[in-house]
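Can anyone check this?
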Amino acid sequence: MVEGVFARMPNLEKMAALVHLAGAVAHELNNIFTAVTGNLSLLDEHIERGSAPSEMIGEAIRTAQRGIALSAKLQAFAGRQPLRRKQIDVNRILRGIACDLRNDLPKTVELIFLPASSDCQSFADEDKLRHTILELGANAVAAMNGAGKIYLQSENRHVTGNEGLALRPGDYIIIRVCDTGSGMTSEV
């Protein structure tokens, strides 16, 4: 029945339906792969480094991360996540975000910016990075009950593949947003 309806749809409507379906599937895939990656990472903390189970968990995490990357591409196709990647200076972006956050934070919340001491150049979507960090800042404020500290930090890291991380060998920039809050209640 669905095939028949789909076949009779004009091409523009078919494309809109496919885009909508791709976005919905991408969202669900992202949720699934994120849960799998998170649980495998927690499990890996209890396994001896370098053991066969640890290596199998690492491979499963890398596979799930490929699924997350595929999900991002599907979301981009669906128009939910247009990708506008370009060469950016991460510390410059974070410095601007820190200024924005300081202006919006309550006076009882202190923001501490700790930039990497070396160059932090990356190929990324500046708007998405900015949005993500601002959201994390808002979540941090909510977790602090109105008072505390938020740490915004960048760090360059070279990964060789021997660290037990689920990353391909190469150079990475780590961005941390930490807070002194107690977190959310179990109900939330």
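Reply from J.R.: I decoded it. The beta strands are 85-89, 109-114, 121-125, 148-159, 170-179.
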